[in-house]
Amino acid sequence: MEQLLLLIFLPLVGAIITAFSGKSAKIVSTVFSVVSLGLALVIACNFIPNASTQFEVNLPWIADLGINFHAGIDGISMLVVLLTNLLVPIIILSSYNHEYKNPAAFYALILFMQCGLLLVFTALDAFLFYIGWEAALIPIYFICAIWGGKDRIRINMKFFVYTIAGSLFMLMGIIYLYLQNPAHNFDIQAFYALNLDSAQQGWIFWAFFIAFAIKMPIFPFHTWQPDTYTAAPTQGTMLLSGIMLKMGIYGVIRWLLPIVPAGVHDWGQVAIVLSIIGIVYASLIAFTQKDAKRLVAYSSIAHVGLISAGIFAFNQQGMQGAMVQMLSHGINVVGLFFVLDIIFSRVKTNKIEELGGIAKVAPHLALTFLIIVLGTVALPGTNGFIGEFLLLMGVYNYGIWASAIAGLTIIFGAVYMLRMYQNVMLGETNSLTITFTDIKGTEKLVLYTICALIIVLGIYPKPVLHLTEASVQHLLEQVNQKLNTVN
Amino acid sequence: MNIIITISITAFIVLYAGLFKANKALLPLTVVGLLTALGFTFCAWNGNAVHFGMMQTDNFALAFSGICIIGTLLIFLLTQNYFHAKSDNIAEYYTLILFALAGMIMMVSYKNMAMLFVGLEIMSVSLYILAGIRKKDFASNEASLKYFLMGAFSTGFLLFGITLIYGATGSFDLDRIQAYLVNSQVISPIFYPGVILMMIGLSFKIGAAPFHFWTPDVYEGAPTLITTFMSTVVKTAGFAAFLRLFAGALAPLHDFWVAPLMVIVCLTLFIGNVTALFQKNFKRMLAYSSISHAGYLLFSLIVLTKNSENNVLVYAAAYTFASIIAFAVLILVKQKTGSDSFESFNGLAKRNPLVALCLTVAMLSLAGIPLTAGFIGKYLMFLNVMTEYKTLLVAFAILNALVGFYYYFRVIVAVWFKDGAETELSAPVQYKVVLLVSVAITLILGIYPAIILNLI
């Protein structure tokens, strides 16, 4: 129990100390993020991979309103907690080649956001979940709007209003569930046990789904995403794409499916169709992008579309694939954005056609970039393959046509990603890239760590699959059982 | 009773101190007087005493009295150098504010409608003078005149309403009125227009649409500190008076007055938010945002539950302290730059990070972001109305909250993301105290609201 509280609040303590640490904020925040990672690993080692919720904390918070500080970790939570605490130190380390103005605030906000994310990923009380959901949003808004690029104010306003609009309607859904709950609390088990008819479930489905769909984002709720990713500082983009979008996916798994299975049954098809449209649409747009950062942003929409299709297909393979792919996508996309950031910091552009021939002058970068790209396009032997394979299998079990179209993501992805790699790294060096210096120091450390993860998870994904298997199984059984009682 | 006596005596002492030019003693005297009154408020807790059948200091009255006194105290701390620069006779300011406060204490604790009227008039007359206290300033005079005319007009409505209700029930006493509603088989037809007229009269006072037209001009024209007082403490007292009548005595008639109230709420939310969106002036934006908050505050009355009153208390507390921060920062900025447009806030984060941070917390609270008091306030309102599953109404309020994000975040954008004049902006110690106390209250209520949830 104490371990979980420590896990959640260590980043918060870190954030406060970092905020007052002035010039040494970089080091202080790195220390805190690495200790958090260590703590998450300790918890993962003590975690027994069965379906139970472990390290549970249940403290009264606002007793009059039925709000408790109720948190715990099961296999699914464990995975995203590990992802969060793994990526935060990587993201902080990736900022070492930058000198942000007012670093104390920058790093404090990152750690503050980590606290919010961990709340979201461990909360077993809907109100706590909502608090975490918003607590993660505020810091990222400031990170993107203070340290972002051109037109950042307008873009981030759009992002902020979009997400908060979704979450306010989710709050309305949560209040509705609370009022339906005879025990008058926000406990997740009580919400699972509610008997709602299918009309009610339909409304709740949309209240939650839109919030999650905006966060992921799923077509047609994605319009904030490319601009925000492009205008954000690289660390902001990494936080958004690497971790924050997993909030949406996690939300679907933890809250949407088990609470309103009949709603999912009725409307899940719409969700799958939207996801698949998103895959094709985002892939096609990615083809035409001239800016590599925007290209990766759109490719992210395509990948997330596949994950969400896999979840709504609602079977063991799809769900397990989503688990693995959440982890893989987080690692890969952070790697991609970091490479683009390195390129940008050297030559001040991410325009694909202005680059070329970097491989000749920067072999280490070329190698690591290649591995990350291959991971992203799901080459067998990389982490991306396991996830996408399982996801496609899940979607296949749902419907052959769906999987045929969703499968396009792999083909399209391979084409635009490899073409991007080719144009950026291969070919003749031009006047811009001739002076390119290879990666060194922390850049090397971060990129090789990411590559190692990509390959290790690709060859030996069993620990991840094993970690989540029992919980996923349990979730499916629970939902199917509930679905049978409703019908 | 002790509370009113203490405040009134303090007011007289301060007036005499002013006569003997003891300007330095004014603030300490006032603070001591208010702290004593606050002490009496705590002592009377759970006492539920009735004074001469006219006033009842139940926990409702005491809780709202407490907020009003604390709010006034914080505003007094902001007076440092504020009045001195403008007038020699500063004792008048102190006295008038104290008298207004005494009137408000009556408004929040009346048991007899005559006391409501007396309290309201004591408060209003003081405020008419305060709004126009800058004798040579045209805007201030305009504000005062407008406020006076509108105020007198609305008092007419209120009095007429009281008269009709008296005519129907034969009593000014709230309990008797309620007993009349519960017991009599047929309610006299003149009772209903009485209720509506009182609702209109009180809506004028709290600045709810469509009776809000005086608010922006008066708020803008009056000296900023007086605006602060009017839009926070005065407003809170107005709501308490409204609640005492409608959620108390007139509660049995809820089905009748909920329809006009719903119209008022929707109009207030919509007009307040949408007009605030287009303001270029920070002070005017706050004026319109205060209208929209009036809408949220009335929101709780649409569905009367046992928590309605407490919800208003929480919301009023959240709103009061966040607004005090916003106005305090406005005074600081205006003293430095001479302007109260949004542009004058540009780059505030660089000029004074502490002030910028406090203002940010205030804006987040007014917008209703979790972990601030404002969120808890809004959440309780939504929850309250959702208990009868009026989902469309809640959805409407949510859409309005979204509009609110836009204009509150415009302030945050100006403060943090825009570059402005690089001049240092120093805050006097008293301002720092007010800002930090208000921020602390805002965050504590946001993180652990349990302390205030069951007060009433």
UniProtKB/TrEMBL annotation, chain A:
This is NADH-quinone oxidoreductase subunit M. It is a multi-pass membrane protein. GO terms for biological process: ATP synthesis coupled electron transport; electron transport coupled proton transport. It holds the Pfam family Oxidored_q5_N. The chain crosses the membrane at residues 6-22, 29-49, 69-92, 104-121, 127-147, 159-179, 203-224, 236-257, 269-288, 295-314, 326-344, 365-386, 398-418, 445-461. Residues 124-409 form the NADH:quinone oxidoreductase/Mrp antiporter transmembrane domain. Residues 6-119 form the NADH:ubiquinone oxidoreductase chain 4 N-terminal domain. Keywords: Membrane, NAD, Translocase, Transmembrane, Transmembrane helix. It comes from the Bacteria. Belongs to the complex I subunit 4 family. It is found in: Endomembrane system; Membrane. InterPro entries: NADH4_N, NADH_Q_OxRdtase_chainM/4, NADH_UbQ_OxRdtase, ND/Mrp_TM. PANTHER family: NADH-UBIQUINONE OXIDOREDUCTASE CHAIN 4. GO terms for cellular component: endomembrane system; membrane. GO terms for molecular function: NADH dehydrogenase (ubiquinone) activity; NADH dehydrogenase activity; ubiquinone binding.
Automatic annotation (TrEMBL), chain B:
Belongs to the complex I subunit 2 family. It comes from the Bacteria. It comes from Pedobacter psychrodurus. HAMAP family: NDH1_NuoN_1 (MF_00445). Residues 112-400 form the NADH:quinone oxidoreductase/Mrp antiporter transmembrane domain. NDH-1 shuttles electrons from NADH, via FMN and iron-sulfur (Fe-S) centers, to quinones in the respiratory chain. The immediate electron acceptor for the enzyme in this species is believed to be a menaquinone. Couples the redox reaction to proton translocation (for every two electrons transferred, four hydrogen ions are translocated across the cytoplasmic membrane), and thus conserves the redox energy in a proton gradient. The gene is nuoN. The lineage of its organism: Bacteria, Pseudomonadati, Bacteroidota, Sphingobacteriia, Sphingobacteriales. Its main location: membrane. This is NADH-quinone oxidoreductase subunit N. Keywords: Cell membrane, Membrane, NAD, Quinone, Translocase, Transmembrane, Transmembrane helix, Transport.
